[in-house]
Amino acid sequence: MAGQIVVAVDGSSPATAALEWAADDARRRGAALKIVHVREPWAHDYPFHAVEGFAQSYSEFCEGVLAAAAARAQEIAPGLEVTTELAEGTVIETLRAGSSGAGALVVGSRGLGGFSGLVLGSVGLGLAGHAEAPVVVVRKPHRDEYHEVVVGFDGSPHSEAALEFAFEEARARHGRVHAVYAWEMPTFSPFAVGYGPVLEEMYENESRAARLRLAPWRDKHPDVPLVESSVCGHPVPALADASLVADLVVVGSRGLGGVRGALIGSVSHAVLHRAHCPVAVVRPREDGH
How many CB atoms lie within 10 A of CB 34? Predict the structure, then answer.
């Protein structure tokens, strides 16, 4: 992974969880951490913002959010290179632009503007699949370490980019990669009989296909253990179940079944909502790396 780790903060609990994850990830990689707080330009357009002293108080709040975040990052990773930036603009566009060249962009699942009960906010969803860097969405503090990174793999360019990121994360954690290759059984007539041997052969063929597709990755990353699961079923439940004992789930922004023009596929979208650990959404970089 090249570049620094960028994390967005706004003083909310999910953003603090994202900050802690990002600081720890930067520490593992020996990377620098950049903490960004975005002040939206129309914040000064509301009538109550004309109250005397509001602008100064608001600026002090923003600076306080950054200072508290930087202090927390240093607590987690003493000696970590930390920089802060108070940016102005729309949150999603500003963070997207700031992610160029970053190793990862880390955000909380919801910010201060989130509605109670929502698992994933508009910022996380708006960035996933759109930013140049992998986007890691952190829902809550994830204290347990399983030394396992789960990745969804279907052979598409997006899933290959996800697999590469998964290996990088697993190496930094001295852990292993668990590749989940899910496929769905074709529909048979309810009146058909004697399909047992056919189904067994299909399962063996799909499992063999998964091993063959993953074999080059074993050769490319011999220092990182790789295990695979070939699952007959929809990939979302399989990935959600695997996330129970994972440090991170990695998915491509779109898979083989993705709709052309869509920036995030249905599987990635669903995993963001259902995973029990942080989720990274990865798309191939424009330069192909």
Answer: 21
* Residues 8, 36 contacting (CB under 8 angstroms): yes
CA-nearest of 175, 153, 180 to 164 is 153
Write down the pTM of the prediction.
0.84
Query: Which CATH topology does 148-282 take?
Result: Rossmann fold (3.40.50)
Residue ranges covered by each domain of the chain: 5-138, 148-282
- Does residue 88 sit in helix, strand or coil? strand
- SS3 label, residue 166: helix
d(CA 262, CA 84): 33
- Tell how strand 135-138 and strand 279-282 pair up: antiparallel
- In whole angstroms, what is the distance from residue 218 CA to residue 1 CA? 18
Pick the CATH number of 5-138 from 1.10.10.10, 3.40.50.620, 3.40.50.2000, 3.40.350.10: 3.40.50.620
Q: What are 129's two structure tokens?
A: 């699949």
Strand partners, 87: 38
Tens digit of pLDDT for each residue in 127-166?
Answer: 887 788 999 999 877 677 899 999 999 888 888 999 999 9
Tell me, rounded to whole angstroms, the distance of Cα 247 from its chain centroid.
11
DSSP-assigned beta bridge partners for residue 231: 182
The enclosing H or E element of 5 equals strand 5-8
Q: Taking every pair of C-alpha atoms in the chain, what is the biggest distance, in angstroms?
A: 80
Taking each helix axis as running N to C, give the angle between helix 157-172 and helix 196-220, from 0 to 180 degrees, rounded to the nearest 10.
Answer: 60
